[in-house]
Amino acid sequence: MEWGIKELVIICPLVFLAGFVDAIAGGGGLISLPAHLIAGLPVHFAIGTNKMSAVMGTTLATARYALKGYIPWKLSAFCVVSALVGSALGAEAALMLSDYIFKIVMLVILPLTAVYVLRGNGLSEEKEPYGTLRTTAISMGIAFVIGAYDGFYGPGTGTFLILLLMGCAHLTLQKANGTSKAINLTTNISAMTVFLLNDKVIVPLALIAGLFNLAGSYFGSRSFEIGGAKVVRPIMCVVLAIFFVRVISDLLF
C-alpha cells in the first residue's frame, strides 16, 4: 500500500516514545499501535508494521539488559516456552469468545494495579527470593497466563509481566524487567513472522519507524539503568492510565 511523509511524521515520534516507555516499564504498544492507525494504515497492516518496528526496539533493550546481567537465562527460557503455549491458546480463545466481558474485568483490574504501583514499596522493595524450583514454577505459570492474555487481547503485557514476576515470583525489578523483555521479544518475533508470511507488513516504513523505536529503546533502557524504580513507577502509572482510557473508549464507541 502507499505511504509517505505524512505517515512518517505521525508514526516516528510516537514510536520513539513507545520505545522509551516499553524499555522502562512495558506497554509501548499502547502508544505505537494507535500511531499506525491514526496515520491511516489498515488494521492488519498497522499491526504487522508495528510488530516489525517493535521487534527492533525490543531486541536492543533485551541486549542491553543481557549485558547488564538482568536476564536469568535458564528461567527466561522456561518462561518463553510457557508464554508461547499460552499465547497460542489465548489466540484460539479469542476466535471463540467475545472480549466485551474481558474488558469489563480490566476496568476493575487496572485501578487495583495502579494502586499497587503507587504504593511506596510496591516496586522498590525486594522480597525474600524463593528456591529455584519454586521460582521457576511460579514464573512459568505467570508467563503462561500473561501469554494467554497476550494472545487473547494483548495491551500492557510487559507491564503485567513485570508486576507479577516481582509480586508473585519474588524476582528483583531488574530480573523481572529482563525476563519480560526476553518473553516479549520471542512472542513479538513469532507474531511478526506470521504477518510477514501473509504480506501484512510495510517493510520500508517498519524499518524507518524501527530506527526511531531503537533510539527510544536505547534512551529508555539507559534511564532504567540509572533510575530504577524511581523511573519505572510514574511511567508505569501513565501506561496503566492510557490502557484504562482505551478500554473505556472501546466499550463506549
What topology emerges from the helices and strands here?
Elements (H helix, E strand, L loop, with lengths): L4 H21 L3 H10 L4 H25 L5 H24 L3 H19 L13 H21 L4 H11 L5 H25 L5 H25 L1 H24 L1
Helix pairs in contact: 1-2, 1-3, 1-9, 2-3, 3-8, 3-9, 4-6, 4-8, 5-10, 6-7, 7-8, 9-10
Structure report:
The chain has one domain. The chain contains ten helices and no strands. The protein has about 250 residues and is mainly α. The protein starts with a helix and ends with a helix. α4 (about 75-95) crosses α8 (about 175-195). The radius of gyration is 17 Å and the shape is globular.
Q: What structural class is derived from the secondary structure elements?
A: mainly alpha
Please trace the helix and strand order, writing H or E for each element.
Answer: HHHHHHHHHH
Q: What is the CA–CA distance across the termini? A: 28 Å
Number of helices: 10
Q: What spatial form do the alpha-carbon principal axes imply?
A: globular
- Rg, rounded, reads 17 Å
In short:
With 253 residues, the protein is mainly α. The chain has helices at 5-25, 29-38, 43-67, 73-96, 100-118, 132-152, 157-167, 173-197, 203-227, 229-252.
Salient structural properties:
253 residues; mainly alpha; 10 helices; globular
